[in-house]
Structures are given as C-alpha cells and as structure tokens.
Amino acid sequence: MKKEKNKYLDLFLSFLKIGAFTFGGGYAMIALLENEFVSKKGWIDKDEFLDIVAIAESTPGPIAINSATYIGYKVGGVLGSTLATLGVVLPSFAIIYAISLFFDAFLGFKVVKSAFKGIQACVIYLILSAGIKMFKGLKKDVFTVTVFAAALIAFVLLSLFSVSFSSIAFILLCGAAGIVFFLLCGKKKEEKK
Amino acid sequence: MIYLSLFLSFLKIGAFTFGGGYAMISLIRETVLANGWLTEEEIMNFIAVSESTPGPVAINMATFIGSSQGGILGSVCATLGVVLPSFIIILLIVMVMKNLMKYKGVQAFLSGVRPCVVALIIGTSVVLAKSTFFPSDSGSVVFNWRGAVILAAVAAAAFVYKKVKKKKISPIILILFSAVLGTVMF
User: Which helix (H) or strand (E) holds A165?
Assistant: First the structure.
C-alpha cells in the first residue's frame, strides 16, 4: 500500500515539475515527458509513448493535458490521470494568477506600455512561425493543400470584412470535407491495393 | 453570469481545438472579442505573457483571461473549462475506445482538420498583423511603421540565430528583444 501511495505522489510531482519548467507549450513538453517516463522511470515503453503522442495531437484540447491524462491513466488509473493533470496545470495556474494580479498596474508604466507595443509585433511573428512550422509538417497532397488554401483565404477574407464565422465551423467543415474526400477517392485507392 | 460564461466559453475552446495552444489562439480571440472581455491589443499582451511563462499556453491563457474577468474564481472556472474536455475525451479513449484513432472515418476527419488548423493559425497572424500595423483609431487608418520595423528585426534576428547556431531561438529571447526595441521606438 505504501508503495502505491508513493507511485501516485511520484506521478503528481513529476508532472508538477514538467508543468513548472517547460516553456512554449505542449510540443516542448513531449521531449521532457519522454525523458521522464520512458528513459528515467521506464513506466511507459517507447512504442506506447509514440501512440500517446499521436493521440494527444489528434484529440481536441491542449497537448500537455491530453498526454498528462493519458500517461496518468496508464500509470495509476483514473486517480493517476487526475493527479497528473492537476500536477501539470497547477504551476501555470499559480504563476499566471500571480502575474494577473499586478499586470494592469505594471502596464500603467509608460516604459512597459512601449515595451508591449514592441512585443505585440513579436507575437505576430511567433504565431506566424508556429503556423509555418506546422505547415512544413503537413503532407503535401492535393487534398491537404486545397483545404489549407481554401480555409486560409476564407478565414482572412471573412475576418477582414468582419463577418463572424466561428473557427469551430471551419474545423467541422474541413473535417467533413476530409470524410467526403475519403468516401469519394479513398475507397477506390483501397480497391486498387 | 461571468463565471458560467467563462466556464462554458473555455469548455467550447477546449473541446474544439486540435493541435495544441497555437491552434487555440484563433478561437480564444474570437470568443474574447465577441464577449467584449479584451481588446485585440490586450489579447496579444496576454499571448506574450503566456508564451514567456512556463506551462501549456492554453492553460496560461485561460487562467489569465479568467482572472482578468472574474478574479480567482473566474480563473478557476476558465481553466477547469479548458481542461475538462481533454480529460474526459482521453479517459474515454484509454478506457473504452482504444482503437478510435485507427478507424478510417476518424482519420479521414482529421485529414481535413489538420490543414484547417494550420490555415487558422497562419490566418490569425495575418489578421493580427492587419490590426496591429494598420490600426483604425478614430476612423482614419494609420500605418504603424514602428511595429513593422520591429517585426522585421525580430524575423531577421530569428533567421540569423538559426543560421549561426543551427537551432531555433527561444521565443522568450525574441519577446525580450522586441520589448527592448519597443521601449526605444515608442
């Protein structure tokens, strides 16, 4: 029983540490997770870890939360996944909450305000370069590129003319297009095989 | 009621974004603007802070927006909202639908979603660039050339760093660099 307890505590603390020390979101976290749970602790084997990453990327929600919930469940069931998720969320929550308390006052300084005007330009670069990096990772078949181009053009035009059209609708429509395309073309390909 | 509205908004964001924190930005921006919670400028400030503090960007954004609108309880509601869909979906997958990802239909759906998410991210950066570099204060559109210069400087710095050091520069360094340029130029 004591050993069991330790496992849960260990799980919680590992995720607390990962939550507190990874900058830049879920993808940055994957390397740390692998190091901690595959290499160091051996709780999860390498193949399974790859499965976990694939699932975390293709299910909705933050990748960090998806992988914490998954790994937590593998190690210690529902309690394990709760502790892992709590662990990975807590540091963010505490740090950001503390910052939010004095952020407005901080922005009241003229020099900080100017600094943030510069930072806003940088944020555009960060988002764009994250997008480009993800674009490089996409398969470049006709379907993928068409969906990408159509969604990009539609999104930019609708936003510029302030037509409200939710990103959720974009995602669902493109997902539906994926299914339709599969029904039309994918089946033929399979028959050929 | 702000708490319920924060919780439900972030529940929706958590349930419909595929591909992590950046993918969330377009939906967070829409939601926050539609509710009148933040201005476009404030959103970018929050993104910068979320990027330069540890932890998942999505959680940082949820906590930050929640706190700005409803204090500690607001941030708890928003964070819980963004985490819950992930938590439940993943538990369902590991417990009952181990092969969900292997179904052809799910893969076909995701094959459409993936390029869409990338388009939303790049599209959001274009829309943010428009509102940052061509702000329409008091009716007339002015060109924010200082911002454009800073963007070019940041891109150049990232490019040179990658060529020389052969690895990607940390976003935190870029944010600090742009902050210094901001204080000098504005």
Answer: none
CB A99 within 8 A of CB A111: no
In angstroms, the Cα distances linking A150 to A67, B73, B105, B109 are: 31, 40, 22, 16
Does B75 sit within 8 Å of A93, measured CB to CB? yes
SS3 of residue A23 by DSSP? strand
Q: With a CB-CB cutoff of 8 Å, which residues 87-106 of chain A face chain B?
A: 88-89, 91-93, 95-97, 99-101, 103
Which of B9, B79, B94 to mutate to probe the A interface, most A CBs <10 Å? B94
Q: Do A148 and B126 touch (CB under 8 A)?
A: no
Q: What is the phi/psi pair of residue B140, to 5°?
A: -90, 140
Return d(Cα A89, Cα A99) in angstroms, integer.
16
Query: Which residue ranges make up each domain of chain B?
Result: 2-132, 144-186
- Cα–Cα distance between B176 and B158 in angstroms, integer? 13
pLDDT tens, position by position, for chain A (193 residues)? Answer: 556 678 899 999 999 998 888 876 666 788 888 888 888 888 888 888 888 888 888 888 888 899 999 999 998 999 999 999 999 999 999 999 999 998 888 888 889 888 888 988 998 998 898 889 889 988 889 999 999 999 999 999 998 887 878 888 898 999 999 999 999 886 655 555 4
As given in the structure block, the two tokens for residue B20 are 């992590």
DSSP string, A19-31: HHH-BSSHHHHHH
Rounded Cα gap, residues A21 and A79, in angstroms: 23
Min Cα distance A129 → chain B (Å) is: 8
Tell me the count of A-B CB pairs closer than 8 A.
Answer: 369
Q: Calculate the alpha carbon distances from B48 to A4, A45, B55, B147, B167 in Å.
A: 41, 36, 13, 15, 21
Q: Which residues in chain B are closer than 8 Å to A119, comparing Cβ atoms?
A: 44-45, 48, 175, 178-179, 182
Residue A145 CB: number of other CB atoms within 10 A?
14
Q: What is the ipTM of this complex?
A: 0.86
Q: Rounded to a whole number, what is the distance in angstroms from the first to the last CA of chain A?
A: 54
B138 to chain A nearest CA, in Å? 18
Question: What 3-state class would DSSP assign to B99?
Answer: coil
Helix B104-133, helix A142-160: angle, nearest 10: 40
